[in-house]
Amino acid sequence: MKKGFTLIEIAVVVLVIAILAAIALPQYRKSLERSRAAEAFDILTEIRNKQESRDLLGTGTAKGYTVKFSDLGEVIAGKTSTTNTLDTKLFSYVLSDNPYPQAYAKRKDLDYSIVQTKGYQDSALCCIGKDCDMVDNVLKGCEKTACPTTCAAGYKRTGYFFSEDGPCCEAKTSCPTTCPTGQKRSSVQYTEDGACCVAKTSCPTTCPTGQQRTSVQYSEDGACCVSKTSCPATCPTGQKRTSAQYYEDGACCVSKTACPTTCPTGQQRTSVQYYEDGACCVTKTACPATCPTGQKRTSAQYYEDGACCTAKTACPATCPTGQERTSVQYSEDGACCQTKTCGSGQTLVGGVCKTACPATCPTGQERTSAQYSEDGACCKAKTCPTGQTLVGGVCKTACPATCPTGQERTSAQYSEDGACCKAKTCPTGQTLVGGVCKTSCPITCPIGQQRTTVQYTEDGACCKSKPCPLVPQSIIDDCNNASYAVWNESECGCRCCNKQHGNPYLEPSTGIVRCLPTGVAAYLCAV
């Protein structure tokens, strides 16, 4: 049977280890911290040496103690600062001139600082702070009494680190009992503890819906907004509600604007008495802002004043010499022609882009007198390519039998002799539209008719019958019930049934409309 450790034995071993650790660990931490504090000793010594050298050997603005690390050059390798503070991983180094020129190092993770006892005039260093027991035995010359880190209520710390150098604490400055206009007292008693006065909360420039501003400027002085008085839902006869919801925002009701007794030209009065109740006048039918394709707006504002649109001027099929057609179809839409531009290797000659003939010709050919390939063959060939015919020693291309839409054949037999096709010309009074000569519809129509949307006579009827104006039904019934007469809707009037009866006329003596055929007694037509 194997023998092991008892629970008591294990507990004793753990206790011994814990005791040894409790004794050794603080000593280890102190030893480690003392080695870390050595960094501060070296850097503070370096700062003191540089400050003394600057004070003794410097000239001009570079003489005397400074509170900027940038004036001392490189104090710590690889680190620079333009302020009075320079940080490393363990310490923050500070240059101060309060109450006298000095430098000190503040430990970042512990509560202690290493300071110079007499500034730059003495090399002695001291430690202040509750964690100084970790580094005290490596410092020399600490005979002064360190100032407390905190002061009694109503007092603040001065710049002195030791009580022998000056007062450690001084009285704080009490806050005033009153504050400037627009501010109020805070709970702070001393100026060093924070702001004695804080700004009051200004009243908003606007209030919530249904409220109005008071004369109060700050919310601490009273109510900034009070409720408004609501406007009534309805107004007296002849008045209308405004947009104001409350009496304080302006008049709740204002007088309506009476309609004028007459209307402008092209308008007529309605039964409305006030502008606010509807339209006082009704206008003519306004012309549209835009016109159909191929038309442009006239100066007419209403359909009743004439044609609202007229046909645009079609661009010519061809352009002057030296110019070429653009994509514009009508002259009103932009330039129909633009200056012709030649491609690479071509020259504009007499308005035509031409390619200069080569100096030499291929084997089996010879140069002609032509300077440009567009003027004829540059070289004479014994045989012509497929599709060409040798005519007078020149290979020519026969003109096609038909031409594109909108063009017609010329007398030229070959394309080299001139244009095979030319733009189709229309007779006087017609316009070429899509390759077809068309006659534009008239601007106005005969009496009793009105214009349709058709632009050309070939596309349909240009005019259509106007609808009759509103005629009382009693007149139409009288006409239809009379002898030999009937109401003609297309002519907007009473007409005799039989053409031999002629047109109805009013008999002056009786006031009766009659149909009177030649040589026959009059017939009653309509009243």
From TrEMBL:
Gene3D superfamilies: Glycoprotein, Type 4 Pilin
InterPro entries: N_methyl_site (IPR012902), Pilin-like (IPR045584)
Coiled coil: none
SUPFAM superfamilies per record: Pili subunits
Transmembrane region(s): 6-26
Keyword annotations: Membrane, Transmembrane, Transmembrane helix
Domain of life: Bacteria
Protein name: PilE-like protein
